Amino acid sequence: MPAGRVVVVTDSTASLPGELAAGLGIVVVPLQVVIGASAYDEGEAEGEATPALVAAALREWTPVSTSRPSPELLLEAYERAARGGAEAIVSVHLSGQMSGTVESAQLAARRASVPVEVVDTEQVGIGTGYAALAAARAVAGGADAATAAAAARERGRATTSLFYVDTLEYLRRGGRIGTAAALFGGALAVKPLLQIAEGRVAPLERVRTSGRALGRLEELAVQAATAAGGPVEVSVAHLANPERAAQLVERLAGRLDVELAGEEISCGELGAVLGAHVGPGMIAVCVAPR
């Protein structure tokens, strides 16, 4: 457990590579995935819910659901940090509109022995991860908990998260389709482009082919990066769709120069929890100002 005056805690949906989180002292608390009658912590290790496990279960129509971390689990993380020397905690999580994780964190914060700033990023996936990184970098620069929490909130608001799904069916099953249902109606065969807006899944556009969807994701990501007016971090994620994700990374890398992108565009598979709600074939791109 990292020692220090302020410790940043986030959840596994933030999609932060283990080495990166550890290097910045970020504590990651897992959400759970229930596949059939078995519950697993989200993660990449043996015995955990991996993206491949979830994708296979969805394809086989095995029931898949997800659950937030309990307040007790978060409280345990806070108290471990306190025993390690933390005097305050910044707890950064995925949108409260999409998960009860923020609520669990708020309940745990009331019982913690040190002050806890709970941040609802109004984002999902690496959008949440970028907010957690903003908090951790602020702490590394000497910021107090309130300032680090403000940095996380600001970055969450400034981040653009766009994604394409092969079908709305998985979002519909999980009850997270929201206003997208009104736009697309019963036309579940269309190829929807969606966004995270005010913490919810919201409709953006619809196209007829996955190829066109990839092209529009590219254009929209470039627009978002250019509008930022400075360095950005860009990440591409997928679920069981590595070839198309790699194509998108290649196209974006050719259009976002080093000065604009700030660093190499990252690419990885979406975590099991979020993957359970979007289904195989999903491609996402996230653009976050530095």
Description:
With 290 residues, the chain is α/β, with parallel strands linked by helices. The protein folds into 2 domains: 116 residues, Rossmann fold (3-Layer(aba) Sandwich); 130 residues, Hypothetical Protein Tm841, Chain: A,domain 3 (2-Layer Sandwich), CATH 3.30.1180.10. The chain contains 12 helices and 13 strands. The strands form 3 sheets. It has a 6-stranded mixed beta sheet with strand order 10-9-8-13-11-12, sandwiched between helices. The protein has a 4-stranded parallel beta sheet with strand order 2-1-6-7, sandwiched between helices. The chain has a 3-stranded antiparallel beta sheet with strand order 4-3-5. The longest helix is centred in the last third of the chain and has 19 residues. The radius of gyration is 18 Å and the shape is globular. The two termini are 27 Å apart. The model has no long low-confidence stretch (mean pLDDT 89).
